[in-house]
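Two quick folds needed for the group meeting slides. Do the first one here.
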Amino acid sequence: MRRAALLLVLVALSGCTLGGDHPIVGGSTPVSTTPGDDPHFPPLHFGGTVVDALSGAPVTDAEAHLDLAAVVPCRNEGLLWQQDALPSGGFEGRFGPAEAPRPRTDDFAYFLHVNAPGYAENVTFIGPAEARGDLGNLTVVLHPSAAVEGTAPPGTVVALDAPGHPQLAAADANGTFRIAPARVLPASFVAALDVPYVDVVAAPANLTLAEGNATGWRVQGSVHAQSGAALAADVVARNATGALVGAARTADDGSFTLHVAPTPADLTLQAWTEDGRYAGVAPLPVNGAPATRFPIVARAQC
């Protein structure tokens, strides 16, 4: 096969190296201690409604709390500075209103946690950009607690599309896999069989997957930093419609093998590290079984 050289550059997500004033390193408060007196740090006001993802009806027994935490890194909730329970519940499924001081540094942000019995928790990141919006009238969508699970040959990587990036799992030694929590809305799904199994599923779902007799094509590659250090990453391939058509996880040395259908296609690779620090996309023209490994270089970090 002829294969065009491919370079996937992983670009940083918005964010955030830990630094500046914070409780451990700087010793000073990351928020305005007198929000009403400082015009540069006006207070934030939180409130809104919690609704069911399927019906749109209010979730009357939802509870909400607000964490002010270090962003370590890339919108991940790290060192906790303070936690506040918000008034919540009631017939309309509302939470708040509540006032909170505004962070003085981008190294800290709010994480709004909302949960209810029988639902998966919703965690909303509220950083400097989000704080410029209407935080007093938020709509938080809760998905019923559900999973996409099933059986597949041991080691098979499976992926379910989701906001941000897909959720990946691998079948264990007993041949079982589970992706949870999973959204209860239809989403693209792929299992990395010899010829990938591709479908649209909605949780809850239980799938039985087995290798077929056909021989698929394999795309080989590796993920590493500019320094040459190997990076552990998840990798998926999408077709022209955006559907998942391949999934893989790197080995310890950063190498991966991506199974694709034995059909010429112009695909797109999407890759990211578990901590969210590196992410990126690149075109992948597939014309046959490639004979050599191509590099994926991670160039930037948040």
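Then this one, please, same format:
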Amino acid sequence: MIKKSLFALCGLCLLLAACGGAAAPQPAEATATQVDEQPPTPPHVPPLEGAQGMVLADINWYVNGDTLVMFGMAQNNGASDLYDVMVTVSLLNAASQTVDAGSRELPVLEAGGQAPFIVTFPADLEWEGYEAVFLELPAGPNTVLYAQDFEIVSASQVPGSCHSVPDSVFDLGIEVKQVGEMHGDAHELLAALFDPSGNIIAVSAAWICAETDDSIFFEVSVGPAEIAEGEIDGYELFVYGYVLGG
């Protein structure tokens, strides 16, 4: 996991360094229409201990067209590494009943570490609160690589290249080198963006632009409709690798 201020985006050399309980309900009348016009500020999320030490560290959302995107950070406060953790976010009405729910699997959360997640919903849902629940799944057929199996060699601004979206507000090209004993068959990179106060304002999955035997080249590109209200001040990068069937 990497954290770096945007003041030093060009020519960076970085090292790669993820719950149970319900969050406080949102303010009344927080409908999808209001979120689309001006995303409400999420309430402070206290460190509520969940199963196996999981906590919800932060959460936010935005509306892009007909899609409501909820995103946040999960944190493992336990003493053991966790694998294949499923985060399920439920939207609640005024009576605390579930309106809709969506899930995202987190491949690995090392002890003391964090990882971002993204869950999507239809934008026309009427909801006034949310709940996030984390569950560790049974071991699957694939081997998940550790963070130390990767090194982020460089990260720099590359507007207009590879898979940049139109009128993007954030573009980053990343070279990741596989340095572990095992090389992955499939790879994913997620970028979490933060405002000057440290609040999460976007999570974006990266495109793979190219791949060699040792290096994977990603690009993160965030459009103006893919970010909650706030100014981008910093970011963290999370790389995942899988040995399929290993």
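Slide caption for protein two: Residues 171 and 221 are 5 Å apart (CA to CA).
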